[in-house]
């Protein structure tokens, strides 16, 4: 198919398709003698996947990183996108319910609690992107380290103090009040300086401390076994935030 045909089929502009080609995101498999781009069925399948990622809020740069990863599996990606879209639909349903109740409250028909007023809202970093990047070539560790370096010495000192406190507790029970208070300081520090972390994202980050040797190496500089201790403490803290345990 020529570029104009693809644009008509998909509803995206010719300029957008040219841009995808220019950045190496989607390069047509063939070209006519006159220089017109020709898109194969395989190109269309890739484009479909790109548009699913776009619908889920992925920046083009991140999509390219995923597609270029040697571990990327197209069929697995479609299955994951299906799961993510179902989760997005559930979130939208919750937000629709929230706004319907807000309208009812405005009419004096019901009274909403503060919790009900904000049900469905979540402005944390893209959970879909995190899941995909962890599966197909995660560069989050490198980017996180670069982000830390951008902060002033005050933030790094705060981080070091929390690490040191946790390191002094690493041989104790991760469920203890003292350990949970210290990991709570870590949770608050992340949320105050690195965006909003949901309980799930916080627990997933703790697992990454153990799964990724670069994280483990950096954290265990404060004491061998600290990464594992933090993972366990963060999991417990997340469970408490979700109300799964007291």
UniProtKB/TrEMBL annotation:
GO molecular function: DNA binding; DNA-binding transcription factor activity
Signal sequence extent: none
Keyword Transcription regulation set for record: yes
Residue ranges occupied by any HTH merR-type domain in the UniProt entry: 1-69
Record carries keyword Transcription regulation: yes
Keyword terms of this UniProt record: Activator, DNA-binding, Transcription, Transcription regulation
Top-level taxon of the source organism: Bacteria
InterPro entries assigned: DNA-bd_dom_put_sf, MerR-type_HTH_dom, MerR_fam, TipA-like_antibiotic-bd, TipAS_dom
PANTHER family: HTH-TYPE TRANSCRIPTIONAL ACTIVATOR MTA (PTHR30204:SF90), REDOX-CYCLING DRUG-SENSING TRANSCRIPTIONAL ACTIVATOR SOXR (PTHR30204)
Name under which the protein is recorded: MerR family transcriptional regulator
């Amino acid at each position: 198919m020529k570029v104009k045909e693809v644009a008509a089929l998909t509803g995206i502009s010719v300029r957008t398709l040219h841009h995808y080609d220019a950045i190496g995101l989607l390069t047509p498999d063939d070209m006519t003698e006159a220089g017109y781009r020709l898109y194969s069925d395989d190109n269309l399948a890739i484009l479909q996947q790109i548009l699913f990622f776009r619908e889920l809020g992925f920046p083009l740069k991140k999509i390219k990183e995923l597609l270029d990863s040697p571990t990327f599996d197209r069929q697995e990606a479609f299955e994951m996108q299906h799961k993510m879209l179902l989760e997005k639909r559930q979130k939208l349903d919750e937000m629709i319910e929230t706004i319907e109740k807000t309208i009812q409250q405005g009419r004096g028909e019901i009274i909403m609690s503060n919790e009900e007023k904000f049900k469905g809202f979540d402005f944390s970093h893209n959970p879909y992107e995190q899941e995909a990047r962890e599966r197909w070539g995660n560069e989050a560790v490198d980017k996180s380290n670069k982000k830390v370096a951008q902060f002033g010495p005050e933030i790094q000192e705060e981080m070091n103090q929390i690490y040191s406190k946790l390191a002094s507790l690493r041989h104790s029970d991760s469920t203890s009040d003292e350990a949970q208070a210290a990991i709570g300081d870590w949770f608050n520090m992340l949320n105050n300086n690195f965006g909003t972390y949901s309980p799930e994202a916080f627990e997933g980050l703790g697992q990454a401390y153990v799964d990724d040797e670069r994280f483990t190496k950096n954290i265990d500089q404060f004491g061998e076994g600290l990464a594992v201790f933090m993972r366990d403490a963060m999991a417990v803290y997340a469970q408490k935030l979700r109300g799964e345990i007291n």
